[in-house]
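Researcher: Going back to the complex we discussed earlier. I've cleaned up the inputs and rechecked each line, so this should be the final set. Can you rerun the prediction on the complete assembly and write out the structure?
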Amino acid sequence: MPANHLTKNEESILVDTAIAGDETAWTRLYETFILPLRGFLRGRISHIEDVEDLAHECFIRAHGGLMEGRYDRQYRFYTFLRGIAHHLILDYWRNRSNDCMRFDESVTQQENQQREARILSRPLERLELLHLVLSCSAKPHQIIMFCFVKLLEWRPREIVDERSDEQLSALTEEFLHTYFDALSSFVSKNTFFEDVCSPLAKTMVVPAVHVYTEREYQTIGSITESPVGSLKLDVFFGGNPAANISDWCDRVKTRTRKMLRTANIMVNSDDS
Amino acid sequence: MNHLSLNQIRIYLSDELSLEDRLDIETHIAECLHCARRVHALYSARINFEELWDSWTLSSHAAEFQTLRISETIKNTSIRDSLRSRVKHWSWNIQNGVEIALGLTVDASKGLAEIIQDGLDFLGPEIDAGSFTPQPSPVTIQGDVDSSHLIAVETGGPPWTRVTTDPALRRVVVQLQGSQKPWPLIALVARDGSWAEVDAFRDVEGESFLLAEFDDIPSGDFLLIIEKNPTSNYRNL
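Model: Rerun complete. Updated structure for the full complex:
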């Protein structure tokens, strides 16, 4: 059992002893949970100094809570800590936005911190979002068209006119290389192609019959034993191809949002 | 523990793990910068999904990486103490804090310089990158390695700005028609983030312009940027 995994009984004894004033017991609780608590905070707050401050504040409040009998024994101690940390995070953001509204002098400093956090994290957020899109449960042709319309800024009508006859694998390759070329001086090739893009790239070699349902099977006819990548874009078009493409883009957004917020939808890959 | 997978992070953020699994993952996040960044990125993406999605294109994504690199490079450049807080403040306001921007390519070994005015939109929609002359860009001059060849462009004014590059001497000189104190900051930043120099303009006795000089610059692609609104920025520090 890892060092930070106390049994409920061990934890209960430590809590009782700490309440009785034994500093060693409190130190043991602190040492057991400070690291995961930092991890919890680091996943939510980018400023490392603020993470440290909040972690210590959390333990101070937890100590007060124990002494004042506010710790509900039906929950584990770490759950209690996390609850406090959650409220501290809310206060943290609330205070920052209040400060921005209240004090002229601090506006720049606060805004700077927010800009800094934003500049630091935004490109990585988009990279994770791309990873989610390329792993989402929308169909491959929908994902590819989303990539062209939304990310490469093609108009659906242009795609219908110029790209209908192309295979999904060629369109996928083109998108991935265009995207990577633009980011190549910031993102490593391995990170991009092996981590972020592999879910979609892998789908291209799967027989279409394993990816498309029977209803969709009819529209792609006899080629369903072929790899997904060999299918041409126009086999997916209905009566209004440009409108189809717009619908597909909406579907990708819906799927991605759902995947981001719901744990029980699995992504299309065994990524590591 | 290996790095967390996308699925593991998603499930973790959905708060549907056992206490033991949560402890393991959060202990790992505390010790692994790579995973901490990914978890934070996905956590932020959950919270700001609509805004993030609406503004997402390949161009916006690349621009954000460029801004990040310039900000970090400027922030980490050695600079005299009196300018430190101004530069730090500027580094996180680059996207809306640039008055003038110019791309420069310098190859000292060939005595080659190039001035490029395209592709600077990521610094904000209103930067004065298109008003340099001569136009059109890029402006190129190829000189003899043994002699000094200048390439100069300038904006109309007032206030006017003139940028003179001497690739053989590895030198860039910028003149800016005088303005109120504090004199604006100016930075020459290697596009790959490997080198940068940041300073404030200085006045020149008997002249109506401010001056900034960069010497011994390495060969490479650079971005030259001049601070916007130094008066209001300085007041807020």
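Model: Worth noting: Chain A touches chain B through 64 residues (CB under 8 Å).
Researcher: Good, that matches what I expected from the previous run.
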